[in-house]
Structure formats: C-alpha cells, structure tokens
Amino acid sequence: MAPYTYIRPYRYEANPRVGAVQLNRPEKLNALSLALMDELITALESFDADPEIGCIVLHGNERAFAAGADIDEMADADSVEMLLRDQFRKWERISALKTPLIAAVSGYALGGGCELALLCDMIIASETAQFGQPEINIGVMPGAGGTQRLTRTIGKAMAMELVLTGRFLSAHEAHRLGLVNRVVPVEVYLDEAFALASTIASKPPIAVRLAKEAVLQALRTPLEIGLELERKNFYLLFSTADQKEGMRAFQQKRPPQWQGR
Ligand code: CO8
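# octanoyl-coenzyme A complex -> structure
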C-alpha cells in the first residue's frame, strides 16, 4: 500500500479477509484534516476494490476515535473557500463503499468523528466511548450528516438535543438509543469489532454486498422503492454459484464453500 502519514491501513493478522484502518494522528485526537481524509478514502477504496477483503474495521486509539474535523483548517476559512474545498463529496465516497465497514470507537467520537462513525455500517463501542455533535459550541453546526444520519438513527428529540446543546452521549446511552451495536470493556473493543468483521467476512460476498446495499436503501428512500430494490437484489442472488452452493450444502447437511461468484 502507498505510504500513509495520518492513518495506518493493515490486514487483521488472525484473518486476512478483514482489512483495518487506524486513524493515526493521536497528538490531535485524530482530528480529521483534509490530508487525513484523503488518505482514509484512498485506503478504504483500495480495500473495497480487493475481492480478498470481506469486511473492514475503522478505529482510532483508546483516547479518541476522532475529535472532529480539524478546527485549525477551518477557523479562518470563508464560505466560498469551504464550498470550493467540496470536502463532503469525498465523505460521501465512504457511504458508497460496497464492503461492510465497522467502526470500533473508544474515547471521543465528536463532530465529524461522530459523523464518520455514523457513515460506517455498524459501531462497536468501548465503555469509554463518547459521542457528540459539539459544533454548536464553536459557532457552527454539523455538516457531514450529523443532522440527518444521526436523526434517522436515534430519532428527532435526542438528535435535536445533541445538536443544539453539544452534550456528549456515553457509550451506554448511545447503545440504548440504537447508535451502537454493543458496548464492551475497552480492553476488548477491537477484538469484538474484529470478531464481528470475521463473521461477516466468512459469508458469501455477493450476498453480503447486495444485502448491505438494500439495508442502506431503507435510510434513503420511501418503503416501496426500498422493497423493490430488496426484491431485485434477492432475485439477482439466484444467479450466483454461492446461492446454489448455500442451498445445496444445507440440503446435504455440510458446511458451504463460498466462491464469491
Ligand atoms: N481540530 C483540531 N485540533 C483538535 C481537535 C479538532 N477537532 N480536537 C482536539 N484537537 C487538538 C487540540 O487542539 C490539542 O492540540 P494541542 O495539544 O496542539 O493544543 C490536542 O488535540 C489535544 O486536545 P485537548 O488538549 O483539547 O484535549 P482535552 O482532553 O483537554 O479535550 C476534547 C478533549 C474535549 C475532545 C477537546 O479537544 C475538544 O473539544 N475538541 C474539539 C471537539 C469539536 O468541537 N469537534 C467538532 C469539530 S467541527 C466538525 O467536526 C465539523 C464537521 C463537519 C464535517 C467535516 C468536513 C470538513
């Protein structure tokens, strides 16, 4: 892989079908600078294009997943400059990944850091994780999905409270609200994320991909259109060798051998 400065992409050593990216700017609590985001998108798209990778884990360190977009890069910018940077188009490339993406969050996931976790398909949180949209405290508001994805995930009342007060949610509150899949002790949060990733990476890849697409569709479209996509993807899977293998293996009472075709 290309040399990276602000992130560390690697393969999970216990399972080469799981790719991982560590945000690696600890002295700035992994603040998401333009350069870091460029590197992150390159690494994620590279894993996404690799048929040997069945799931990706994104994590920071114990103190911070990411404390937001880099305030130093934005402090003196004007609207035109922010518009011309067109950062959000790049962020949306993360939501276009076909491979499932799991955020393993410990410590701060704030502002753009919380929005980045929300762009992932699932979140495993350590007991020390804190989620929040504190942009209001620095004179702005969320810009990368904090008013949209967060509202669709935890509902209007709580999203409104977080966005308007900037208060942080504890990991357990985030779990109660359905923002995270589970909360585990900080010592094992990465193991837990990698275990989940390994399970997903062991499933038939085309079915995983089409199922992910269909679940995401539920957040984007009215029910009828979502159901239509679901049905088409379901039919499409009957053209795969893995569907024949999966059903045959069930009938023959043996484990399936997936080909990814
Ligand atoms: N940007 C730049 N630097 C940061 C950021 C940040 N978001 N967060 C922390 N840092 C830096 C600090 O400046 C400090 O650097 P230095 O040591 O050089 O002074 C270092 O990280 C450590 O931070 P603290 O000393 O502040 O650590 P504390 O433990 O005292 O506090 C906090 C931790 C509470 C997390 C505190 O750092 C904080 O409040 N950070 C800012 C949180 C925030 O407001 N986030 C939202 C940013 S705006 C945003 O994300 C908008 C997203 C829009 C989409 C993105 C597209 C551009």
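# post-check
The pocket of octanoyl-coenzyme A is lined by residues 28-29, 31, 67-72, 87, 108, 110-112, 134-135, 138, 143-144 (CB under 6 Å).
The longest strand covers residues 18-23.
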